[in-house]
Amino acid sequence: MIVFWLLALALVASAVFVITAKKPVYSVVGLLANFTALAIMYLTLSAEFLAVIQIVVYSGAILVLFVFVIALLSSGVAPFLVGPDRLPAAAGGGTIAALIGLALVVFGITQHPATIGPAGGAAPVGPVGTAGAFGSVADFGNALFTVYLLPFEITALILMVAVVAVILLAGDTGPSIQQRLRRKREPIVRDPAFDAAMHRGEPSSERAS
Amino acid sequence: MSETSLPVALINYIGLSAVLFFIGVAGVIVRRNPLIMLMSIELMWNAANLLFLAFARVWVNNAGHIFAFLVITVAAAEAAIGLAIVVVAFRRAKYVDVDEAALMKG
Amino acid sequence: MGVEGAYPLLIALWLLPMASAIALWAFGPQLRTAAGPIGAGIVGVCFALALFSWPDAVQRAHGALGAHLTLFSWGSGFDFGLLWDPLSLTWTLIITGVGFLIITYAIGYMEGDGAYARFFAYMTFFIFAMLTLVLSDNFVGLLVGWGGVGLASFFLIGFYIDRKTAVAAARKAFVINVVGDVGLMFAILVIVTQVGSTTYAETFARLGQFSNTALVLACVGIFIGCAAKSAQVPLHSWLPDAMEGPTPVSALIHAATMVTAGVYLIARCWPMWNASPDARDLAGSIGGLTALMGAILGCAQWDIKRILAYSTMSQIGYMVMGVGVGAYDAGVLHFLTHAFFKAQLFLGAGLVIHALANEQDVRKMGGLRTKMPFAFWAMLVGVLAICGIPPFSGFFSKDAVIYGALEHGHPYLYAIGVLTAAITAYYMFRLILVTFFGTYRGEVDPSDLGIRHPELAGMPPHAAPQAHHSHQPGPIMNVPVAILMIPTTAFGWLAIGPDSPWERFFGQLFAGGTHVEKVPASIGEGLSTLIVLALVLVGIGLAYLRYGTSAAREHAVERLRTESVHMPPVLANAFYFDAAIDALFVRPAQALGRFMGRVVDPIVIDGAVREAAIVAVSLGNRFRMLQGGLVRGYALTIVVGVICVIAYYAVMGAGR
Q1: Among A53, B84, C449, C541, which residue has the fewest nearby CB atoms (within 10 Å)?
Q2: C458 plus C560 within the same structural domain
Q3: Same domain, C53 and C72
Q4: C residues 623-642 closer than 8 Å to B (CB)
Q5: pTM of the full predicted structure?
Q6: Interface predicted TM-score of the whole assembly (ipTM), two decimals
Q7: Residues near A47 by Cβ (< 8 Å), separated by ≥ 6?
Q8: pLDDT tens digit string along C315-336?
Q9: In C, which residues are within 8 Å of B18 by CB distance?
Q10: Domain residues of chain B, as ranges?
Q11: Cα–Cα distance, C357 to C87 (Å, whole number)
Q12: CA–CA separation, C42 vs C23, rounded Å?
């Protein structure tokens, strides 16, 4: 139990640090701390596989992506923020909105306690590390590739779409399509040595070199 | 099958998730740096994940794990695309300030 | 009521004047001077048709009198048709006969006028409307004719469109007549609610169905219409101003026919009148009052046509009094004789006016007896008739009316009638003496005669390039006047005694109906006649003393000036009726109009429209702020929406 409260404290503190840090790099570090605490929390919830996935994908891939982009953007000399704050009401308004939402959720939860949910036909719960226990790799894989195969495939599709989108958006900094169309067709320059090398061994042709 | 399998009562997980979620909301609205905004959105995703896993543990139901997995995947895709947009915008304007991207005004 | 059948002559009689009016309207510029004879000819043909149809009017079959022609019917009880019985025959003969003579006269009178054809188009249109009024067999047709004659009167009073006073007089006449129209319409509505029909036959047959108040209301409504159209107090003030129209118009419309439409209406509704003593009291009293007032005001006028106008008002008061108290034959007889002698008087006055280049003020006349003898004799005959001197026709009819009032139980009205006869004699002889005796005062300076506004006198013929020169009228104007002298003189002999031709002709209208009881009169008819005659002679004597003695004739100019200057303002302003109407109705209406124009229209109506626009614009501005283009703003909006959803579920609970 104390673990939970410590982890909760870490989560909240790092989250607040993320949103209030001065530099983006600080935010990334805070986010890393947040994800790590979350992974430990998942472990306490018998979700071992997901804890590992959290570290591998979130901290290992997404945060690294963030760091790369920050590095890319920081390489310029322009500061991050130019121009005045155009919506000064957002600061106060956002905070208040968040607090109201929080209050409402808490109120709602206390009014209507959760009911018992459906049983899922999962493996029984066991101590962490038990093979085939609830939340283990085997259990997770079993569900993923049988009952939830379709969502899995769709997720693959989503990832492909993301890859294509990123390449289209941010890749290829060459001339734009219009520019390429406008560029005159360059004359094909024939290289006689190359041609000779290509056609070595063929019956001699009457083509002039 | 009962809440006693959790370290603490379920309500605490729900409250923690809500707090994390709304911290993320505040971050999206208050900060002007798009990178920070995207990170706040990641916070929100994670809050939802936490809630999924908590309920999965209470009801011993795999679906929560599956769904949390899918959430992580989609969050990754979204982060990638979002960052790509930020990069493209930076190439154009040489700075990133969300408030300046007000072409859709009116 | 009446024998059903097809009467093509009646249809022709009714519609020919309309066809003529349309033709003259449409082809006026091409016809030019031919318009006059065409108009007169058509009306003459109508007169002949009416004469030929005389037997149909007095035929009696199945116990009903006259001829009935149904034209079409809208629904049960709302048939529209023509009724041809002695009453409508009487009016038709006067309308077409006297109308023919007057329109012929007008061919000469309106000669040289720029809108010659338009005049005759209007006159024939008037004939058509008046015929519609008297020939209808239902109240709605009557109302249509009623409105039509009002319209024709408006056209003809305002015929000289360049003259502001004429236009104002036309408007005044029309507006006052509208009051009467409303009263008449109200009466028709009451009748429809009581018996569900508008035809005379059904209404009078079912009089028993009327409740008492409904009957009184209907009679009052009818009488309001009659009062407006026939210039009874208090709706009389349009008639003197209506003299702005050309003299033939005054003769035909405002003397002989249109103003008697009210008398016709009361006579037509005699069953209703017989059944309601309150209505009789009202009609008789107003008639008597009008007769007296008209006579008193006639003593104070200097315009020859206005003198005649007030005398018309007074004589119609007699007629209304006659038919109002229930003496229908006396009242209608007076209508007949009045049509003759009043037309004669107006046409004679027209001869004088025409000869003197549109001078109408009697103060500037004088001594015309030697210059225009024919006009003098014509007007003398008319004046003797109107005063009720035997053997002229007016004597018989006026006596019948006055004695009828006494017979039907109204001694006060009898006294008023007698007094009015005396005053009538006075001012009519004043007219004759000042106009035709003494020396001609046309060259005298107007202010010496006490004339305050010389520019208002006379009627410039519009669009005539040169001033009308003074000349003696030709035969086309003299012959109709001469013809009119005959009935003016002789018609009365047809009505002597209870079994006279007139009684036999007209009395059959009332056969089978209830009569108003006659009370035994306190004095015999012969004695009453003598009393009236004596007072008439007193009136003539007074007029002679004031205007006719040699001393009066010598000092005419000073006497006239003195009288003009010392005219009591009460009389000069016609008992302040015009001022009262102006203060009570005209000014408030104008103030209301100004208020609407200055306050309501710009502030309320325009303001409402502008406010709608302003609200739309400001709402749009508010909503525009939502589209700020800022990402964070949109995010905030989304979050607010999410919170609303959360709030809903937090309160209501999920799963509902």
Answers
A1: C541
A2: yes
A3: yes
A4: 624, 627-632, 635-636, 639
A5: 0.68
A6: 0.88
A7: A135, B53, B56, B57, B65, B68
A8: 999 999 998 888 888 888 999 8
A9: none
A10: 10-96
A11: 40
A12: 11
